[in-house]
Structures are given as structure tokens and as C-alpha cells.
């Protein structure tokens, strides 16, 4: 097959990134050994990068010291085989800058920065916040546009202005605004990563860089195969793989439970490092966990049948 003619986008952190859970022990303490084992598995099964201390990583309930320790441990485990992007977003510009500098010192390769939440700042204040973080550190920065959680959009016009900063290189897109995304893609060199798993292939097809996926915690190889098929010119195969993952994506991301809860429930059921979630989150019940496991088993059985055909 002829390769796809879609022009390649910049990929500062690779294509296939996982928004990794933060493993805890049964007592709720940071499990650095478990984090290293999970990171190793994710990278060995196709992840180019790992995003730590994001939404799925339960960043609101981990301490500054835990965030730095997690970056150091995961960087030690994966070395130069994967990029480490550290979530440093808070509602406080000063605190965000402090976390950015700590992540840089701990060995992160990039920073993930949300719009400040709760206070709902206007766009000029959002822009000033992001610039302050980008100016403070030498690391490249990923804008994290997730208004459903922060209450504030990073509007396309704001992104266009921020794109001129030499260290603002990418966007994790959870805004559900494909038109706005394409407007920015058409006018900048920013790397756009799908932050919503159901949009991964759609965004990639119009020039996105790849994804930052919660579902990749459990099926990293399958999601990587979607992008590999597309890059090989097998657009039909890419679409089939994306569609086959739909039921698992829905059960993990649209079941009424946060992705951190569903990812940890499924990882735990599979005997992989995860541990409990921290309050105010609560663990998935048995029925929800059984449903997640059923969808996981259907997808992996389908993969085995396809491989054997």
C-alpha cells in the first residue's frame, strides 16, 4: 500500500503517549516500584512517552514531593526510550512555576500545563499564566485544554498567540472542538495530541501528532497499532482497530466514573501495578470492574483472532 499523503506533524514527544496512573500501595502511599514496573510495561508495548501527574495520575491529591519522586523513578526506569512529560498544572501561577522547576530538576522532558481552574480567569490572564511557566523553565511545554474539568477554555485565538513562544510546542486536546483544532493546525506548527481516546484517529488523520491516552494504560499495543496502520497507508485497518476499541473506551471514559478509577480497577484486575485511588475518588465496584474486564477480554480476544487469521 502507498503511504498516506497526510503531511507529518511535529512530534516532540513521539506519537503514542500514555496518561499514566500513579500507583499507590494498599495503604495509599506512593508505589515507586510499581510505577517503574508499569512504565516499563507501557514502553515495551509501544508507548513513546509517559505523561505523569495529569488527570489520570490523580495530580490534585499527590504532594509536590511525590510528583518529583515519581518523575525521578519513571525516568530511571525508562531512560531515553520514552519521553517523560510532567503535569504541573495548578490554580496558582506561583505554585505551577515551582512545580515546573521541580519537574525539570527531577528529569522530566516536558511539562503539561492546564488553564488555572476554579478562578476561571479571562483569556489574557490564562495567556499570562502559561507564559510565566514557559519563561521560568527550559523545558518544552504542552498546553492542556480541558475545559470540562478546569471550567476555562484555552481558546483557539489564545493558542495561536501562545504558539509564538519558543518553548510552547504542543497541545493536549480535550476541548471537543475539532473545527477550532484544525484552525490552529492550519496556522501553526504545534503538535496536537488527542486527549480523548475516541478522537485519536480522527485528529491524527487531519495532521495531529498522536494521542495522550488513558486507555493506553491497559491496551498500549492496540492503540499504537491504530497509528501504525494509518502511517502504513492502511487507513481501513486503522479505522477498524479504532472501532474495535470503542466499547472499551466507552466503558473506561464514559461510564460515569473518572478514568483514573476505571484504569486502576482494570489494571488491578489484570494483576498490574495500580493500587487504590485517593479520596475524594472512590474505587470502582465489583460490577463496574467485571464490566471493564469483559470489554478488555473481548478486545484482546479479537486481537488474537485477527493475528491468527
UniProtKB/TrEMBL annotation:
It comes from the Bacteria. It is found in: Cytoplasm. The keyword Disulfide bond does not apply. Pathway: Amino-acid biosynthesis; L-lysine biosynthesis via DAP pathway; (S)-tetrahydrodipicolinate from L-aspartate: step 3/4. GO terms for molecular function: 4-hydroxy-tetrahydrodipicolinate synthase activity. Catalyzes the condensation of (S)-aspartate-beta-semialdehyde [(S)-ASA] and pyruvate to 4-hydroxy-tetrahydrodipicolinate (HTPA). It comes from Streptomyces apricus. This is 4-hydroxy-tetrahydrodipicolinate synthase. The keyword Amino-acid biosynthesis applies. Its EC number is 4.3.3.7.
Amino acid at each position: 500500500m502507498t503511504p498516506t499523503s497526510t503531511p507529518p506533524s511535529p512530534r516532540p514527544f513521539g506519537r503514542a503517549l500514555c496518561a499514566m496512573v500513579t500507583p499507590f500501595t494498599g495503604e495509599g502511599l506512593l508505589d515507586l516500584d510499581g510505577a517503574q514496573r508499569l512504565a516499563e510495561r507501557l514502553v515495551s508495548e509501544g508507548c513513546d512517552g509517559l505523561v505523569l501527574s495529569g488527570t489520570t495520575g490523580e495530580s490534585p491529591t499527590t504532594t509536590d514531593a511525590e510528583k518529583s519522586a515519581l518523575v525521578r523513578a519513571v525516568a530511571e526506569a525508562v531512560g531515553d526510550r520514552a519521553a517523560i512529560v510532567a503535569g504541573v498544572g495548578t490554580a496558582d501561577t506561583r505554585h505551577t512555576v515551582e512545580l515546573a522547576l521541580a519537574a525539570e530538576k527531577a528529569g522530566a522532558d516536558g511539562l503539561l500545563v492546564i488553564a488555572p481552574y476554579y478562578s476561571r480567569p479571562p483569556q489574557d490572564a490564562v495567556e499570562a499564566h502559561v507564559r510565566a511557566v514557559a519563561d521560568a523553565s527550559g523545558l518544552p511545554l504542552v498546553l492542556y485544554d480541558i475545559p470540562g474539568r478546569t471550567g476555562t477554555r484555552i481558546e483557539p485565538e489564545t493558542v495561536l498567540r501562545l504558539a509564538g513562544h519558543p518553548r510552547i510546542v504542543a497541545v493536549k486536546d480535550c476541548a471537543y472542538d475539532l473545527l477550532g483544532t484544525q484552525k490552529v493546525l492550519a496556522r501553526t506548527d504545534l503538535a496536537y495530541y488527542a486527549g480523548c481516546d475516541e478522537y485519536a484517529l480522527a485528529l491524527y488523520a487531519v495532521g495531529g501528532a498522536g494521542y495522550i491516552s488513558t486507555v493506553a494504560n491497559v491496551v498500549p499495543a492496540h492503540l499504537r497499532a491504530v497509528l501504525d496502520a494509518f502511517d502504513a497507508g492502511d487507513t481501513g485497518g486503522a479505522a477498524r482497530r479504532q472501532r474495535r476499541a470503542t466499547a472499551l473506551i466507552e466503558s473506561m471514559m464514559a461510564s460515569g466514573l473518572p478514568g483514573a478509577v476505571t484504569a486502576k480497577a482494570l489494571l488491578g484486575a489484570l494483576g498490574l501495578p495500580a493500587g487504590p485511588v485517593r479520596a475524594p475518588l472512590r474505587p470502582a465496584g465489583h460490577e463496574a470492574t467485571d464490566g471493564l474486564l469483559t470489554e478488555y477480554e473481548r478486545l484482546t480476544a479479537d486481537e488474537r483472532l485477527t493475528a491468527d487469521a
